[in-house]
Amino acid sequence: MTRRCAVHQSDIVSAIIRLKSREGQYDEAHHYRDDKLKKTMIPFLALAIVILLSGCSQAAGIDDILSNAKKQGKVMMLELGSVGCIPCEEMKPVMEKLRTNYKGKLEVYFVDVKKEKEAAKKFGVFAIPTQVFLDKNGKEFHRHIGFYAYEEIVPILKKTGL
Question: How large is the angle between the packed helices 86-101 and 150-159, nearest 10 degrees?
Fold first, then answer.
């Protein structure tokens, strides 16, 4: 994901450099049209860069969180859902209770699959909410689709020694 974003960013930077390097190389007939093009194109390119950078940081975010949990030897629960999805919203208190009761042992992370589509693909999510449990080595050991009650999750976590 990061490599693909870097390619797009370099394309945008190259376009800006081309626009800047062409300054002063116009005859009078093209001057007005080219100035107008630059005035509309540069803000558009700046906006594209911001959008690309925000998309890259989100994708890198999940990878960073997974890597960090693995380095710290923590079990991880990923809640892959979406804001506004009723069963996903019902999972929020369950996730908070898990965070509180397993603090320092379990990393609980919500992934909005509408915003982080690459994460949804990476974990093969076809229905939401999907809970993915990863062991201390980052290997998936359990998966569930739909609302998952706290009382049903605890036995799964006990199997891993939590």
Answer: 50
Phi, psi (rounded to 5 degrees) for 135: -75, -175
**pLDDT at 57 (0 to 100):** 40
Per-residue model confidence as pLDDT tens digits over 112-158: 999 999 999 999 999 999 999 999 999 999 999 999 999 999 999 99
Q: Look up residue 138 and give its DSSP letter.
A: S
Residue-wise pLDDT tens digits, 61-75: 788 888 888 899 899
Strands 106-112 and 75-81: parallel
Amino acid of residue 72: Q
Close Cβ partners of 70 (under 8 Å, ≥ 6 residues apart): 136, 137, 138
> Is the CB of residue 150 less than 8 Å from the CB of residue 94?
yes
Q: Which residue has the higher pLDDT, 27 or 73?
A: 73
CA 23 to chain centre: 38
**CA 70/CA 13 separation, integer angstroms:** 35
**DSSP state for residue 96 in the 8-state scheme:** H
Tokens of 113: 């699959």
Residue among 79, 92, 157 nearest 120 (CA): 79
